[in-house]
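Section 4.2 – Deliverable D4.2 (structural model, holo form)

The reporting period included a commitment to supply a predicted holo structure for the target in complex with protoporphyrin IX containing FE. Inputs used:
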Amino acid sequence: MFELPQLLPPLLLLFLPLVLLIFLNKIFSSKAAEDDRRFPKSYPLIGHMIAFYQNKSDEFQWLCNLTMASPSHTFVLHRLIGFRQVITADPAVVEHVLKTHFPIYQKGPFQQSVLRDFMGSGIFNADGETWKFQRQIASYEFNTRSLRKFIETVVDAELSDRLVPLLSDAAKTNKVLDLQDIFQRFAFDNICKISFGYDPEYLSPTLPQAKFAVAFEEAVMITAERFRTFFPFLWKIHKLLNTGSEKRLKLAVREVREFAKSIVRQKKQAMMENNISEEDLDLLSRILKSGHTDEKFVTDIVISFIIAGRDTTSSVLTWFFWLLHKNPRVENEILREIKKNREIQRNETEHSSVLEQVKEMMYTHAALCETMRLYPPVPSDTKQATADDILPGGTRVRKGTRVTYHPYAMGRLEKLWGPHWAEYRPERWLKTEESGSGWRFVPRDPYTYPVFQAGPRICLGKEMAFLQMKRVATGISERFRVVPAVDEGFEPVFVPNLTAKMLGGLPVRIEERI
Ligand code: HEM
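Output (structure tokens):
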């Protein structure tokens, strides 16, 4: 016969899950009552886990709503065993984290472990000296001479030799194109040409489905999924066992790295064969020339630049053309600005450069800012505290706590943008010139509008991105009407991966104007 003490362990094993189930059931069944409350309940040890899983399918919007609803616009998410994540839409906290207390708030070990497989020690995933070196060397890429070269030789050539003929052909054949895919191809060719001196010809008439691009997409998606999970140890176990999405991530990253490595090798070969003048150095040759020949490190930098260049502006331009379709008044203003710009050029004896012309397009500039207010390409971004701290408003931060600022939520706050925040209104960024001759752009401070981040790590490519987006936006609008090929009532869905996208892309038909 069995003694009671012998029976205890199996009995406990049997009953513990039962007790846990009853406990969870009680909590879930009280959901209706909980719905009345604005904020989810946090439990000892498991924190907000239950509410998190109840909202898992739209976790991004859920956290956004909570942050917006909080009176201080700062919400503390309680993770497992006492870990906390602060999410904020308060400009004072954003300034504190990104600027005044910059040394405390780093990328940190959590983010680095999530991103390392895909991005290695590239600029987006680096702190300290590794970051400083990359920032310094990359900043040459963005001086006025490089920007002029970018707009005149790279963007304009891709626009007139590839994009316009492709759209013209689609207009003739009434073909449906995925606008987001077209812009990604455009931006990918652009960033490879200016940063690495390499032309992948990804925007070609047959729209080839490169293995590299598919792998890139998969790597971005799975890496973003790592960020979202409530149980980070789960992806680590999958990684260890090489199973599930982690197995797919490994294969995708291998493909991406092979592609980036081939760019590095070609550049090394070209540098050995030709003596590149200081004037013709691009980012990649500058890094190699500085003595950094470690292939893994240089490949990391190449991958970071592809992410920065390919996925941000393409997302903005896709939302921009959607918003123009919904707001014909704004589209007409942009056409008026293009026409006026053309007239000035015709009447002037000395023509201004493409760079200057693009810079002058104030209304288009404002329309793009307004697009990014509503649909920021980097919708939220996280830092990790390296020391204890207190945020403006009083939230306590312990060493190791993650602090996320949320440009997507900030763009929707009545307190920051007024009662008509939901309207697409470029005019909120503009004042009429006193002479009455046109618009003057009125920027918002970068803590209220941290779409390009702010402080010492503010986006290096901001000006380059605006030039490219304005040139493409006006170059297309001048000649074509972009008509979404979607059913009545269709509303696109914002997907907040590492960089945001429109779910499934934007199918469009192209019509020639006149
Ligand atoms: C609309 C377009 C763009 C937006 C909204 C944007 C936004 C951002 C944001 C939010 C960051 C901070 C990311 C972080 O630290 O986690 C960033 C950093 C950066 N961006 Fe952009 N970006 C854009 C386009 C570009 C382009 C075209 C380039 C050119 C290659 C670029 C180059 C960079 C670089 C190098 C950094 C790293 C800066 C650092 O860590 O010191 N960006 N960008």
